Amino acid sequence: MSKKIFIKTFGCQMNEYDSNRIFDTVKEIGFSQTSNIDEANCYLLNTCHIRDKAKEKVYHEIGRVKKNFRSKIKPLVIVTGCVAQAENEEMLKREPYIDLVIGPQAYHKINSKIEEYLNEQKRLDETEFDAVSKFNYLGKIKNSSKKISSFLTIQEGCDKFCHFCVVPFTRGPEYSRPFEKIIKEAKILADNGVKEIVLLGQNVNAYQNDNYRLSDLIIEIEKIPEILRIRYTTSHPSDMTDDLIETYGISKKLMPLVHLPVQSGSNKILESMNRKHQVKDYFNIYKKLKEINPAVRFSSDFIIGYPGEDEKDFNNTLDLIKEIEFINSYSFVFSPRPGTVASKLRLIDNKISFNRLEIIQQKLFEHQIKMNKSLENEVIEVLVENKMQKNTKFFGRSQYMTPVIFNGNDKDIGKIVKIKISNSNRNTLFGEIVEKSKLKVA
Ligand code: SAM
Ligand code: SF4
Ligand code: F3S
Prior knowledge:
alpha/beta, Rossmann fold, CATH 2.40.50.140, 22 strands, about 20% strand, binds S-adenosylmethionine
């Protein structure tokens, strides 16, 4: 019988990277991947626990799978990711349709657990924290990503324990992968045709292996000729060290969009969040980066309606947004997560939170639109990723990650081309490729 796995992924980029590495792993025991759930004999749900009714979403999804397979042979059902870690054996008790529950630090055991299940029909959960063995194992399995832009996890876990966040509980303590293993994986990706590498970590700029830091990784990856662009996410203001800031002045491939979550513009709220940085620290980083490289622009994450946030705190966040002019950001209403310090604090009125979120998003969108409008009639560099489905147009991204849709050529996929922007909306730029012969030399 052919073995086909259908993988569904919720959550952050790290979950996306993990899903791909899980597939690279199960391939070793004969699985091929399918995008048609009906032909799958293994269904894997990679889950996220960061906000809202994460747990309920998972059970709801499993309910849908159950319904889908009602008159067919039941697939092997595996739940992985952060909800799997948080819930572990509870999931097996609550939903008999789930067969295996595997936490993010135990993916290296997935093949043996699948085989154990297939041989003995033993339902089980595996949620030990063992990042060292996991990355040792995954280092031996070739990363088969052939996308133009690919993720590469360099660091996992978090020791910061922000009071609102589940990540330290679901991903475990901070662990940085060995420098040489990361460079080896980057070279494999380059050989596969990858042109942009996005270095990933829950605290990516806390990366530290021997004496190597994130800046060393960027400088080393920059030497791989096939790699044209380098990005990293997500970073923490406290780990924005001078060596990393200086890299923005010397690197030709590090992109000038800095995604640096601030969460709030109020020192009172930052302290209550246990963020370990103040608003002035954030401004200092901003100033230093702008001095080193004026092309740098910022994006951020904001939590609105955190317990204790009053009108003044909220206005401080609004002021910070006006000052920095973030060009692309994520904002969420605070969501109490089980087991975190903030879940025990008194919630503020939901209506107030959502009103504030609306005001914040309006401002953030304004900046995004302004930035995109400012590029109309300009020629910008775009890394071409693919031809769009059901469309003759091509898709790529600007240096600032903004999607660009344009008339292009198949031969340009994987290349950086010059695009003249003719039009824009909040999320996307539209334009035409500029033929080399028509480019004015400045
Ligand atoms: N490590 C990153 C940092 O230090 O900011 C963030 C990682 S977290 C996966 C992504 C974002 O989710 C956070 O920046 C935060 O804005 C948001 N987030 C995390 N917990 C949240 C909660 N309980 N309620 C609302 N948003 C939350
Ligand atoms: Fe969560 Fe980021 Fe804080 Fe770690 S630093 S606890 S991942 S928000
Ligand atoms: Fe979600 Fe876990 Fe990522 S909680 S945001 S999948 S680290």
